[in-house]
Amino acid sequence: MRCRYVRGILRPMRILLVEDNESLGKYVVQALKEASYAVDWCKDGEQGERSAKEAPPDLVLLDVMLPKRDGFAVCRGIRGARVDAPILMLTALGETDDRVQGLDCGADDYLVKPFAMEELLARVRALLRRPAARLPEVLTVQDLELRPAEHTVYKGGRALTLTHKQFAVLEYLMRNAGQVLSRTQILEHCWDYSYDAASNITDVYIRQLRATLNDTDERYIETVRGAGYRLRP
């Protein structure tokens, strides 16, 4: 499995495919998995945009002619949410104006159908070599201070001891402070695909974090019933 070391954890490199053509989608998913990538596949524009925002992948393969929301609109929506994953647009539209529009929407590359799978994989590798965006040096929420590069956390100036997974969960909560994050979102962001969506592993780590933070009254991590968890800003 191709992996990337991100924010203190080693996780599979995830590619989001947004493609409504069933046969092409299956072909691309199979090729990517054989190349050792983890793949999510969405079959309409609304679902694809939502997935990219909720669990940002390492790369997006985005068709243009999609149900519900076309690829140009999806691309603008992803960039508007400040998701900086590379976007490779896949489409049968080959006119110059279409390519220009895709790039102007925020896409990084453009591949016209039909394409050779070898070329698609080569472009994927090239885009994934792009340096990752610089992370903020310090995250601060309430009296919590987290330094991603140093892998350290402080509460009221006192250093806390966290495991890699506890650190990853807290960092994800802090980066999305004030937003409700579902158990599935936390699971997908902080773990690889060896865990089932029905697993209670997220709840276990939330309990551990609360114990470390002495968060008996949910001053920090709030449980939103039926939805997930939220770090109070």
- Second-tier CATH architecture of the largest domain: 3-Layer(aba) Sandwich
- N- and C-termini, Cα separation: 36 Å
How many strand units? Answer: 13
Order of helices and strands: EEEHEHEHEHEHEEEEHHHEE
Spatial arrangement of strands, main beta sheet:
4-3-5-6-7
Give the mean pLDDT.
84
Descriptive key words:
alpha/beta, five-stranded parallel beta sheet, Arc Repressor Mutant, subunit A, four-stranded antiparallel beta sheet, 233 residues, Rossmann fold, 8 helices
Overview of this protein structure:
The chain has 233 residues and is of the alpha/beta class. It has two domains: 3-128, Response regulator (Rossmann fold, 3-Layer(aba) Sandwich), CATH 3.40.50; 139-231, Orthogonal Bundle (Arc Repressor Mutant, subunit A), CATH 1.10.10.10. The protein has eight helices and 13 strands. It has helices at 22-34, 45-54, 71-80, 96-104, 117-128, 164-175, 183-190, 201-213, and strands at 3-6, 9-12, 14-18, 38-42, 59-63, 87-91, 109-112, 139-141, 144-147, 152-155, 158-160, 221-224, 228-231. The strands form four sheets. A five-stranded parallel beta sheet has the order 4-3-5-6-7, sandwiched between helices. Strands 8-9-10-11 form a four-stranded antiparallel beta sheet, with helices on one face. A two-stranded antiparallel sheet has the order 1-2. Helix 2 runs parallel beside helix 3 and helix 6 packs across helix 8. The chain starts with a strand and ends with a strand.
